[in-house]
Design brief:
The chain is of the alpha/beta class and 255 residues long. It has one domain: Alpha/Beta hydrolase fold, catalytic domain (Rossmann fold, 3-Layer(aba) Sandwich). Helices cover 40% and strands 17% of the residues. It is globular, with a radius of gyration of 17 Å. The model has no long low-confidence stretch (mean pLDDT 91).
């Protein structure tokens, strides 16, 4: 059962559990449904917070990665959070990285899984056959190692999104912004502990992307999950949760 969304001004978010603040940042497709397992798992020991990123409501000329990082900053300040633990998947990881370059003193730890920020194989350079659900199913299946995770619900959600012209334009704008906004020059300056969790069979941000992140980020540890694609928290939730659990517990004890 999904936790209830709270609404305050421009912010829609979930906020469950008690303990150190652990903020989840979702990617370009999917939000709450992608993190159901981790939300339930971690809310027993952490205050799990997940803002719904305004991917489709920012002004067109301001639909980019830095603007979403600014939105995250407004949200964190609105809630009065300090010493946050950030966990981002895909585009969410990229937003977390930009936030960390500007507000490092507010970040205790950073966890990235399948993050953009260096380079990635885009979902598609436009959607020439977006009216074709089976075409979309095949594209979505590239997210996973095992295509069984390409559920009818995911296909329907994607179909609805890419056939909304205003949303499609923003998706393409964000995808281009992610490619343009390369973080290689910023990563060596990160001071917080960073956990990298990567699917060995990720075809969107392939394993060499994880290796490059690991090389460029000073205080990083890299963990692999086998038989896993781009969305480890969905495809291998037990392994993903166990990895985050172990690393976060160890890291918070050390600080």
């Amino acid at each position: 059962m999904q936790p209830a969304l709270k609404e305050e001004g421009e912010f829609r978010y979930i906020d469950v559990g008690e303990g150190p603040v652990l903020i989840f940042l979702h990617g370009l497709f999917g939000a709450l449904s992608n993190f159901e397992g981790p939300i339930a798992h971690f809310s027993g020991r952490y205050r799990v917070v997940m803002p719904m990123l305004p991917l489709y409501t920012l002004p067109m000329l301001n639909t980019n990665i830095p603007a979403l990082a600014e939105f995250l900053d407004r949200f964190v300040r609105h809630k009065g959070f300090t010493e946050i633990n950030l966990l981002g998947n895909s585009l969410g990881g990229h937003i977390a990285l930009v936030y960390c370059t500007k507000h490092a003193t507010n970040v205790r730890t950073l966890i990235l899984t399948g993050s953009s920020g260096l380079y990635e194989n885009a979902f598609g350079g436009g959607f020439p056959r977006r009216e074709d659900k089976e075409y979309l199913r095949a594209k979505i299946a590239l997210t996973f190692y095992d295509p069984k995770h390409t559920s009818d619900q995911l296909v329907d959600e994607c179909y609805e999104t890419v056939n909304d012209k205003a949303k499609l334009i923003r998706i393409l704008s964000l995808a281009k912004s992610a490619i343009r906004h390369n973080m290689a020059g910023d990563l060596p300056n990160l001071k917080m502990p960073v956990c990298l969790i990567w699917g060995k069979q990720d075809t969107i941000t392939p394993p060499d992307v994880a290796e490059e992140f690991h090389k460029l980020i000073p205080h990083s540890e890299l963990f692999w999950i086998d038989e896993c694609g781009h969305a480890a928290m969905m495809e291998q939730p037990s392994a993903f949760n166990a990895t985050v659990d172990g690393w976060l517990s160890k890291t918070l004890e050390q600080k």
